[in-house]
């Protein structure tokens, strides 16, 4: 064959192949259509309770901490650590702000509210998980009981009496998984969600003028919550890296334990009038407060010892009161 013709034939063949491949690629692009996700629409209500309306009036509360060098404890923190062995206030007139901070109270309520959204989503879900709802409402009753007695301004204080009474009733209703219990608990969970968003709490019962702590919350849910706190604290103080990374969680659980210890020895609570039982609760509370102090001064070793102290006081109490 003539070389020129051979060259022309090769160019024609290459052009045909290139065109065919291009057509296939275009066809593939046409068939692989991607639908964009619709842009979400938000309302003002979706943001209520999430961000501060005014950072300087709502977010910056309390006295400004004393400046110190990184890793060096302030004089106030060293003073707290030095007095860790002094008797802790457990029962009687309690200064709640010394045991549990406003941030811990808010975070605990919000965490429980999220759990309730799942556990009371449908009648079928509630029927299988009503025990979880009972635990949540019991702890809500306790937390809002603390808010009712809190010695300084704290969020939801105006609604505390109505909310505490309502959650006390919800805890009683959620002992069973019936449809009536579901409807009652769902209404109270919705009222809580509205309160957390910044709205008004709608209670179904008139609030009690005074609180009987043995009715506000029983000992069993408190013990279950203590067990959850201890599991977290043991995990988060297993290494210095874990402690440093999740110091805020360590502080939260330490404050929850300190507050629960106080509730356990409130008037009319089971065994609260027994001096031995009160001593165990006081020992647990002291170790819990030592844990939160260790967080403030960023002392991992002190935190580890304090958590071991909490565990030891629990073990001693259980061995005596089983």
Give the helices and strands, then pairings.
Layout: H1 3-31, H2 44-47, H3 55-59, H4 75-82, H5 102-119, H6 123-149, H7 160-173, H8 179-196, H9 213-216, H10 219-236, H11 240-245, H12 247-264, H13 275-296, H14 300-321
Helix pairs in contact: 5-6, 5-8, 6-7, 6-8, 6-10, 7-8, 10-12, 12-13, 13-14
Provide structural commentary.
With 322 residues, the chain is mostly helical. Helices cover 66% and strands 0% of the residues. The protein has 14 helices and no strands. It has helices spanning 3-31, 44-47, 55-59, 75-82, 102-119, 123-149, 160-173, 179-196, 213-216, 219-236, 240-245, 247-264, 275-296, 300-321. Helix 6 (123-149) crosses helix 10 (219-236). The longest helix is centred in the first third of the chain and has 29 residues, at 3-31. The chain is extended. The model is unreliable at 67-72 and 74-87 (pLDDT under 50).
